[in-house]
Description:
Layout: E1 4-8, E2 18-21, E3 39-40, H1 48-54, H2 61-73, H3 76-88, E4 91-95, H4 104-116
Parallel strand pairs: 1-4, 2-3, 2-4
Helix pairs in contact: 1-2, 2-4
Amino acid sequence: MGPIEIQRVYDHEPAEGAVFLVDRMWPRGVRKDDLRLDGWARDAAPSTELRKWFGHRPERFAEFAERYREELAGRDDAVRPLLDAAAKGRVTLLYGAKDTEHNQAVVLRDYLKERAG
């Protein structure tokens, strides 16, 4: 399995391997033709309800991560392309959140590493 990295979409530098956007909504101010994506894994993103509840509040991150992992467990079809790409090599997950430590891409990366390992 290749490494699974996360990167803020606004700081994105062209990366080797597969690149997936993992937000449910397209990031503001980014043109679709500005990103070289192998896929937009919007169905692997947290549900709208969970995302709104979390509200990027760090004090809710632990519970958010637990709830999001429960959602991911029921979304094999959404997660499978990411796992397949990781089996072939490096994968970069792009996200739009300002907080680089408390966001869904952190949880998704760790979840994928556990599933692939």
